[in-house]
Amino acid sequence: MTYCVGIQLDRGIVFMSDTRTNSGVDNISTFRKMFTFEQPGDRSITVMTSGNLATTQAVISLLQERSKHPSDRAPDILRCESMFQVARLVGATLKEVIEEHAQNGQQASGTFGATLIVGGQIHGGEPRLYLVYPEGNFIEASDDTPFFQIGETKYGRPIMIRAYDRQMSFEEAIKLLLVSFDSTIKANLSVALPLDWHVYEKDSCKTGRMGRIERDDPYFEIVSNGWGGALRDAFAALPEFEMPATA
User: Fold this and answer.
1) Nearest-5° Cα angle at 172, 166 to 177
2) CB atoms within 10 A of CB 142
3) Are 187 and 24 a contacting pair, CB within 8 Å?
4) 144: DSSP letter
5) Is residue 241 part of a domain?
6) 109 vs 177: CA distance, rounded Å
7) How far is residue 161's CA from residue 156's CA, in Å, rounded to a whole number?
8) What is the CATH number of the domain that holds 225?
9) Mind listing the pLDDT tens digit for each residue in 94-131?
10) Structural contact between residues 33 and 196, judged by C-beta atoms closer than 8 angstroms
11) Domain annotation covers residue 103
């Protein structure tokens, strides 16, 4: 399984993804799910993937290959004129890969599905964040929906809804994401460290600060233990439930 999150802030966009893939309890591997495309000063684009690994790898490989060998017959991600066009291109590429599986005689196309988060900025436009579906269509983040999650979303969503603030700093956003990922990791074995993160700063039009949270990362341990302790303290501070008197 997977857990990836992209959140839009006044300062830019923050991305985080886990790296675990598995096809059974005895077949667990680590694969990168975050990919960046850039032309410094012109654009920075980040793509995160969730779903069938063969499908997502084929999509990323096509996007990378076509950006290295541009052709009028196959538009590439580094020549799109807007982030909207980037989202359309990524959606079309995803749909192309899934349809190719079907044309090769593979049945149950849903098995080969994938969902992607695409975000970034092209010079002259604003930072944009999109959620791309297996059918190739997509939606854009807004003030009402300022972040997107893909994969195993339900465990980490409550803290995102309660604590998100569009004006928060990049450091606060990463801390929030780590709490969200910690909640997901504790509830679902199919999501695990290492975690990759990327901070895109508005109007920089280049790849920003990036990093990886390893399994023995001391700050993650502080966040995980501190959040667990804070929850226990908050629970203990709540008033006791009063049982109604029996007749």
Assistant:
1) 90
2) 9
3) no
4) S
5) no
6) 32
7) 9
8) 3.60.20.10
9) 999 999 877 775 555 457 899 999 999 999 999 999 99
10) yes
11) yes
Question: What would the two tokens of residue 166 be?
Answer: 């569009």
Give dist(CA 150, CA 132) in Å, integer. Answer: 10
Confidence (pLDDT) at 27:
66
**Bridge partner list, 149:** 5
Helix, strand, coil % (nearest 5) of the chain? 35, 30, 35
Spatial neighbors of 101 by CB under 8 A, at least 6 apart, are 55, 109, 112
User: What confidence category does residue 223 fall into, taking pLDDT thresholds of 50, 70 and 90?
Assistant: very high
Residue 97, phi then psi, degrees to nearest 5: -65, -45
Q: Positive or negative CA dihedral for 136, 142, 145, 146?
A: positive
Is 242 among the domain residues? no
pLDDT tens track for 123-177: 999 999 999 999 999 999 999 999 999 999 999 999 999 999 999 999 999 999 9
Q: Is the overall model pTM greater than 0.85, yes or no?
A: yes
For 166-207, what is each residue's pLDDT tens digit?
A: 999 999 999 999 999 999 999 998 899 999 999 999 999 999
Higher-confidence residue: 215 or 247?
215
Name 10's bridge partners: none
| In-domain check, residue 115 | yes
Domains contained in the chain, number: 1
Q: Which domain holds residue 103?
A: 3-235
Q: Could you give the 3-state DSSP secondary structure of residue 158? A: helix
| 173, two tokens | 């956003």
Residue 193 is encoded by which pair of tokens?
Answer: 């460290």
